[in-house]
Amino acid sequence: MDRIQAICTLIPPCDVLVDVGCDHGLVSLYAIQNCAKEVIASDVSAGSLKKAQQLLEGYKNVSFVVSDGFDNVEREVDVAVISGMGGRKILEIISRLTYKPTLILGAQHNVYELRQYLVENGWNIEKDFCFFDRGKYYDFIRAVPGKSETPTHVHLSFGIYYKQKNEHLLSFLLDQKRKISGYKLTESNLQRLALIEEVLKWQV
Ligand SMILES: C[S@@+](CC[C@H](N)C(=O)[O-])C[C@H]1O[C@@H](n2cnc3c(N)ncnc32)[C@H](O)[C@@H]1O
What we know:
- By secondary structure, this protein is an alpha/beta fold.
- It folds into 2 domains: 3-152, Vaccinia Virus protein VP39 (Rossmann fold, 3-Layer(aba) Sandwich); 163-204.
- Helix content is 40%, strand content 26%.
- The chain has helices at 3-8, 26-34, 46-55, 87-94, 111-120, 153-158, 167-181, 187-203, and strands at residues 14-20, 36-43, 62-66, 79-85, 102-107, 123-133, 136-145.
- A 7-stranded mixed sheet has the order 3-2-1-4-5-7-6, with helices on both faces.
- Helix 4 (87-94) runs parallel beside helix 5 and helix 7 (167-181) packs antiparallel against helix 8 (187-203).
- The mean pLDDT is 96.
- The structure holds S-adenosylmethionine.
- S-adenosylmethionine (SAM) binds at residues 20-23, 27, 43-45, 48, 68-69, 83-85, 89, 93, 106.
């Protein structure tokens, strides 16, 4: 399974889905073939959107829009996929939403802040896992409107479901532990190592 297939496992059956930052259009293609009655492929870059237009040519019920986040997405959607961006960029995009669709998020960095924003702003994180593909680790999240349990520092750092066994999370932790152990053991590195050990208890 690759990164695109992994994030697509989170998409529920739905009427209208928007793929924000669709670029190549692979997520949109999966959605229209498998789980959405209608797809809006959107990207802030007209050049990127063109790639999706080419891939999805001939598909009925797929529309295309150049849009910064949801700015030009004129309909309310059931599901929004935002992947392949940093957590802060995703956070900035969702913080401008005026309603709450199901969110499928694929973040590369700053996932702590993203999780914190979601739980503090009326989202329930119902799926949250780490995934390794082609030399990089990603965090994939599905959030629905609702209330989350108050998360700890460990939940925000390594995922709400860090107690569930995940070989990708285990290799991430071992990788991080090895790197940090080679650095100077400052207070913050020691704190990070303690967090890693806490999660490793559940993963080995
Ligand atoms: C690395 S690609 C990710 C493509 C695809 N979503 C994926 O997961 O493979 C990031 C895409 O996000 C688009 N993008 C960046 N900022 C955006 C924004 N504010 N609104 C919409 N699209 C954005 C870029 O133009 C680019 O096509």
